[in-house]
Amino acid sequence: MINKILLVDDIQDNLDLLEDLLDDEFNYGEYEYKVESTQTTRAKDALKIIQNDNSFDLILLDVMMPDMDGFELCKILKSDENTKHIPIIFITAKSDSDDIVKGFELGASDYVSKPFSPEELIARVKKELKIKSLINHLEYIASHDPMTGIYNRRKFFELSLKNFSNHQNNLYAIMVDIDKFKAVNDTYGHHIGDKVIIIVANTIKNSICKDTIFGRLGGEEFAIICTNPSEEKVQQLVEKIRVDIESLELLNDDNTIIKFTISLGIKKATNEIIDLDELLKDADEALYEAKRSGRNKSIFRGR
User: Residue 60 is part of a domain; what is its CATH number?
Assistant: First the structure.
């Protein structure tokens, strides 16, 4: 595991010392994970770095800096939905209790007083990285389907609602259902049915863009929310997914080959559609039209 840490101090020697300590401990110490550090001597530059990349696992932040102090930077980061999750350890020469309390009130996770003990600093860094790792794991469990690893129903609707609120007539809902899935379970057993669900999910996941919202709504039913300026490209994507899954083969326990297909319904968001539920309902109706008319096909409903 690679942990990304941002080091912010207006004295370059301090930054070099911090980087050496982290490299020594995490590359060769008892922990298997490694630190990838980024450093800057200016708080305003640190803000730009984080705004461009909010995937840092920890920030080591000096309080006393000339352009913007650490308290102000911490306040900005903790008030931003995209950066408030990043833990901050203050490294400060200020030992006044009021300053320490202020740091915690602004959202800092911990502090280390200058001059600091290397052992103490490393111990506090380890603690924060462990906590961050645990939080990430718990968030993953709460938001992902345990069988397929894609978004679960709750997280799918949470993210889709945000996308729907911000859409500008280029948003599409795609409903996906595995054809005759009950027959797969009844004929081959639920363990084969699970394999079919997993391979379908992986095939779709590998075909869609990174920012596409893809979730398992339950059983053999999946949903996709995506943006694309071209109706034609969306239909091409859906057809590619359908053909890719139609061509898949799964080996049964007795070495016979199992084939399976999917049906899909697509609906484009319009100004007349007032909420996400209506958009998904229209896509679901298109899906069942595809099923009623023969399965292994897609139905598109535009404006």
Answer: 3.40.50.2300
Which structural domain, as residue segments, surrounds residue 78? 2-143
CA atoms within 13 A on the CB side of 38: 21
Which 3 state secondary structure label does DSSP give 212?
Answer: coil
The number of folded domains in the chain is 2
pLDDT in tens, 103-158: 999 999 999 988 889 999 999 998 999 899 899 999 999 999 999 999 999 999 99
Residue-wise pLDDT for 205-252, tens only, equals 999 998 899 999 999 999 999 998 899 999 999 999 999 999 999 999
* CATH number of domain containing 252: 3.30.70.270
- Provide the whole-model pTM: 0.84
> Looking at 111, 143, 175, which one is the last position of a domain?
143
- Does residue 233 share a domain with residue 162? yes
Long-range CB pairs of 113-120, under 8 A, 24+ apart, other chains included: 116/91, 118/21
| Residue 285, both tokens | 């109706």
**CA separation for the pair 70, 122 (Å, rounded):** 20
Q: What is the DSSP string of 46-114?
A: HHHHHHH----SEEEEES--SSS-HHHHHHHHHTSTTTTTS-EEEEES---HHHHHHHHHHT--EEEES
Of the candidates 87, 78, 84, the residue with the CA atom closest to the CA atom of residue 58: 87
How many angstroms separate the CA atoms of 50 and 67, rounded?
Answer: 17
* Residues annotated as part of the active site: 220
DSSP-derived secondary structure for 163-179: HHHH--S-EEEEEEEET
